[in-house]
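Comment on the following before class.
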Amino acid sequence: MVINVKNIVKEFKEIRALDSFNLELREKEILGLIGPNGSGKTTLLLSILGIYSFDKGEIKVFNQELKPNSYDIKRKIGYVPQELALFEELTVYENIDYFCGLYISDSKKRKELVEKAISFVGLEKFKKFVPSKLSGGLARRLNIACGIAHQPELIFLDEPTVAVDAQSRSFILEGIKELNRQGASIIYTSHYLEEVEDLCDRIAIIDQGRNIITGTNEELRDSIATTEIIKFTLLEENGIVLKELRNLSHVIDVTIKDSEYTVKFDNPNSNIGTIAQFLKDRGLTYLKLYTEVPSLNDVFLELTGKELRD
């Protein structure tokens, strides 16, 4: 096991940021952490890294307790924080060289690693630029390069694609997959659920300092009552239709927004025929009618009672 977190409690005055928290990261796995702001994600990362002390529990990294002088373990770890951690007076090359130098003292080896990191994040044309001259997406790439240049075995990525353009997001996500293919174990936090679904082998849902559930996409979907979601759009909203839908067998929830009805079922059978017949019997013409499996957002909403971005 790369990381083993057992019953961690972390308090800040009157706030319990982590409440009997448990988590495991397996070797060569990408583990996604999702939760609303203030749920405890960053506190968890900083506790694992040894930056925060904690009140109760145990954390082991590479089967050892991480202490301030555990330099052999720290050399194996890379951390990319949510906020850009760059020196504005240093160039792209100099920033990466500085952070790589915290772990690699041999100048020849460090130069090779810095050049490799620059190539990895696609900043070859920007070596002499200072961070203020980079776009938001390029600055994010530099932030990542600074955290992974020393080729760590364990990487923490805290919201690495926040506020970047689509092209940079795609570049960053592909880079993360490549790091994992090269053997890195990764903990990844994001508010973009489609990223988490695409990237992660397993996902932990965190709320109010607790790990509510951890599992694969399929395991998380299987943990909730909703098995199928039918959506259809009418020319105008109809309150009677809404009430009658809720009385259908196996319907557990019905919502409406901008004349689009969302009907959630808890049975394993296809329900689109049931809805089509329901509309036909009432002489209602629909503009579109389609079925979906529950998404990660549906799982999060059902388990926590809130949207991720609430």
In short: The chain has a mean pLDDT of 94. The two ends are 33 Å apart (CA to CA). The chain is about 35% helix and 25% strand.
